[in-house]
Amino acid sequence: MKNCDTSLLSQFDVQELMLGYIKRNNLRDPRKKSQILCDSRLKILFGKPCVGHFEMLKLLEFHFFINEDLPKNTIKNIGKQVDPDWNLENMMTLGKDKKRRNQEKSEDRVPQNKLDDYDAIDVHNMNLIYFHRKLMENLNDNSEQFCVKVIGSIVRIRISGIDQKYDMYRLVQVVGTSKADAPYKIGNKFVDILLEVLNLDKKETVSIDTISNQDLSEDECRRLRQSVRCGLVKWFTVGDIQDKAVSLQSTRLNDLMEAETLRLNNLRDHASEERRMWIEQKEKELIRSKDESI
Prior knowledge:
The protein has 9 helices and 6 strands; from the N terminus they run H-E-H-E-H-H-H-H-H-E-E-E-E-H-H. It has helices at 11-24, 40-46, 53-60, 88-109, 123-128, 133-139, 143-150, 218-229, 238-293, and strands spanning 35-37, 50-52, 154-159, 168-186, 189-199, 202-207. The chain has a 4-stranded antiparallel β-sheet. Strand 5 (189-199) and strand 6 form a beta hairpin. The longest helix has 56 residues, at 238-293. It is flat, with a radius of gyration of 36 Å.
């Protein structure tokens, strides 16, 4: 179609060449212009006697097969000469091979996080390793398991200051545990465990009852990022967050299920109360209507 020229063509050039060939040979269906009546060449190319315009453009994609061993300025001229062994099955095989190679290349280009790389300090990642007070209360029954799970996690502590009009909290990492001189109460339990946290560049000991029970915020994550950049807090790696998140997964799941069960029970009790009030209202209306009839 191009006087035996085998130079590399873009997909748009090939489409333009095909449309010119179809127009010169009057291959449009006179009754339906969107259909193309294939001659002997196009039947070999498309594998069918008739194709639609957009179908033709789609079928052409199977013929954009570049042999990587050839120079860049040449392409394999597939279907240039009529080959009796060339059929639709060959074309589909080439198309599948090309698609598979493209998928393999795209997979190779996907960046894989290395465990030693620094991870992002944002709400999503910090929530994976965040411990609130209620979670610690539920986990405190097993002191050995408690220590293993809590060390390396993030907790939220209150920052004391004279000029602060509102309560401010800081995210700190638990680096160890110690035993209190005397048991103290959290919730309905007495515990004797203290948490050793790294508050900026200082190690402090805090009791579990001083840990916040609220969710962390984006502003607190932002301040934690600033502390890390200033060298006051060590960087969190992908491996650190991944390992700690996996170890806390079952504990966090149990906590979420307990909270969801409590929410559903409250909804059920509320619905039962509304139904009871509705029944009482109907009984009063029925009694009132009987009195009026008498």
